[in-house]
């Protein structure tokens, strides 16, 4: 059921009532003049899926939504980034430290987003970026943990993410990560809820197709955190996972749950090689 | 307690619907067809068109294009066009496909509209919270019959 651009066009012309038809577009994504790798030869995690190209969700959005992401001044997520840049230098907690005390400027975070979730040897756990931010706050600063998907956390994630913009996603799936990856893969292919749909039902078998008014993408997470116009705010990967599982009429998992940490690692690996694009803009 | 429940059911169901088949009692043929009306009554095609179009009901157009429902916006492309379905299939086939498409197309992404249990992490509708099986099926027996009646009107030109 994959439409190429030409057949999509044919459908558009032949069947008048259908106002749209599918497929990823051929536009080029540049952010502030820097070209992103928004399509890339399928990474190893996509072997045996029949997908030959990993494609950023940007290619499935409307032109006006796409445009908001090409210039930092037009990207509403940048307000949160600016806010977090102030927090970066703000001393909090019992140790009298700020992020800057240990890390210098935010640009020291270049490359970090690209490799998370990442195994933490000392703690012996798989850490998402949010978990690492909270580990720094509680252990190094003596400050309170942020709410996993609260506004402060998501803004700080956006600030750290933007430092890696344009770098290829490159999460490790071997060694201690392997068991998390397997767990995430199992979740990806499980058909949850009364509608009995898995992530793959929509994002592997049907990307490029419309489901009612929604143009299905591959469900890549290289653009997270994402500014969603619908919510007028930044959302995290786990919020999106929750929404998608809820839409299958299933009981969801919680943000920050072991299930979503594993799923995040697995989904990230399906986009290894795509540019870190966050904070992106979606409808 | 049990007695009360049973009499209540009879009173609610009333004469015409006395032969309603419960979701767990539907008998599917080898290729997924269901011979008898699930409600015991014939379907109403006009009501069926409504069920297929409404987001809160069948929302079939989320996945299927149907020319006869041309004024319903945003028809999807996940499943095949249903134009001509009433020529391609017998009524019993269509009833089976709507009730539980996986009996006809194993592994299909099409949800089962008349199924109440056997789900993984069943939810309470679209709340994201846990639901308790048996869940109410997505469509009632009569709504399935109405949809089937409408599909039977979709003949090849």
TrEMBL record, chain A:
A GO MF term: heme binding
Binding site residues for substrate: 240
Superkingdom to which the source organism belongs: Bacteria
Residue positions binding heme c 2: 199, 202-203, 244
Active site positions, chain numbering: 244 (cysteine persulfide intermediate)
Catalytically driven reaction(s): L-cysteinyl-[SoxY protein] + thiosulfate + 2 Fe(III)-[cytochrome c] = S-sulfosulfanyl-L-cysteinyl-[SoxY protein] + 2 Fe(II)-[cytochrome c] + 2 H(+); S-sulfanyl-L-cysteinyl-[SoxY protein] + thiosulfate + 2 Fe(III)-[cytochrome c] = S-(2-sulfodisulfanyl)-L-cysteinyl-[SoxY protein] + 2 Fe(II)-[cytochrome c] + 2 H(+)
Chief subcellular location: periplasm
Residue ranges of domain Cytochrome c in the record: 84-169
UniProt subcellular location: Periplasm
InterPro entries reported for this sequence: Cyt_c-like_dom, Cyt_c-like_dom_sf, SoxA
Keywords associated with the record: Electron transport, Heme, Iron, Metal-binding, Periplasm, Signal, Transferase, Transport
Cofactor: heme; heme c
Signal peptide: 1-21
Enzyme nomenclature, EC number: 2.8.5.2
One Gene Ontology cellular component annotation held by this UniProt entry: periplasmic space
Similarity remark: Belongs to the SoxA family.
NCBIfam families: thiosulf_SoxA
Quaternary structure note: Heterodimer of SoxA and SoxX.
Protein name per UniProt: SoxAX cytochrome complex subunit A
Organism annotation: Roseivivax lentus
TrEMBL record, chain B:
Domain Cytochrome c: 43-155
Gene3D superfamilies hit by this protein: Cytochrome c-like domain
InterPro entries: Cyt_c-like_dom, Cyt_c-like_dom_sf, Thiosulf_SoxX
Classification via SUPFAM superfamilies: Cytochrome c
Annotated transmembrane regions: none
Entry coiled-coil feature ranges: none
Keywords from the UniProt entry: Heme, Iron, Metal-binding, Signal
Signal sequence, start to end: 1-18
GO MF entries: electron transfer activity; heme binding; metal ion binding
NCBIfam families: thiosulf_SoxX (TIGR04485)
Protein name per its UniProtKB record: Sulfur-oxidizing protein SoxX
Organism of provenance: Roseivivax lentus
